[in-house]
Amino acid sequence: MAAIQGFSTTHPSDPKPGDLIEIFRPAYQHWALYLGDGYVINVTPVDEGPPATFSSAKSVFSRKARVRMQLLKDVVGNDTYHINNKYDGTYAPLPVEEIIRRAENLIDQEVSYDLLGNNCEHFVTLLRYGEGVSDQANRAISAIGFVTAAAGAFSLLGLLRSRTRETQY
């Protein structure tokens, strides 16, 4: 795994076309796919003015996104990033020419967006592997499932406890 870094135009681990770029935002990771010549493709909220990343709170609730080609340094901003082709051991990357062709066909298109089921990581992995996957979303879904199960268990315990008290009188 490449070292985490801020933006640099001359770094020993410069991305290659087709690489997945993981950008570390304060509360989550944003994902982009490197196209070459300093540019990436990523999804941004439809309703935000200038091209931006999913960094605002309203983007979490957005149902639509716009596919944008932007300079990596602009997308990263003051955050850090690293090259993270973490699914290469599980999924075979498509040929680079196909990845780039598929990505370029989507520039400026509006696409559906769902934080848990169709997010920025799903988008770039679909381009690289032909399959949209997101560990970040899977972790969130697992956490939601755990909280829901725990709440259900506490509710059941409360119900049982109240019925036990009722039968004692």
From TrEMBL:
PROSITE patterns in the record: LRAT (PS51934)
Biological process (GO), any one: N-acylphosphatidylethanolamine metabolic process
Pfam families: LRAT
Keywords for the protein's UniProt record, in alphabetical order: Hydrolase, Lipid metabolism, Membrane, Transferase, Transmembrane, Transmembrane helix
Keyword Ligase: no
InterPro entries: H-rev107_PLA/AT (IPR051496), LRAT_dom (IPR007053)
TM regions (residue ranges): 140-160
Domain LRAT, chain residue ranges per copy: 20-136
Gene3D superfamilies membership: endopeptidase domain like (from Nostoc punctiforme)
GO MF terms held by the record: N-acyltransferase activity; phospholipase A1 activity; phospholipase A2 activity
Highest taxon of the lineage: Eukaryota
Any one GO CC term of the record: cytoplasm
Similarity comment text for this entry: Belongs to the H-rev107 family.
Protein name listed in UniProt: Phospholipid-metabolizing enzyme A-C1
Organism: Buceros rhinoceros silvestris
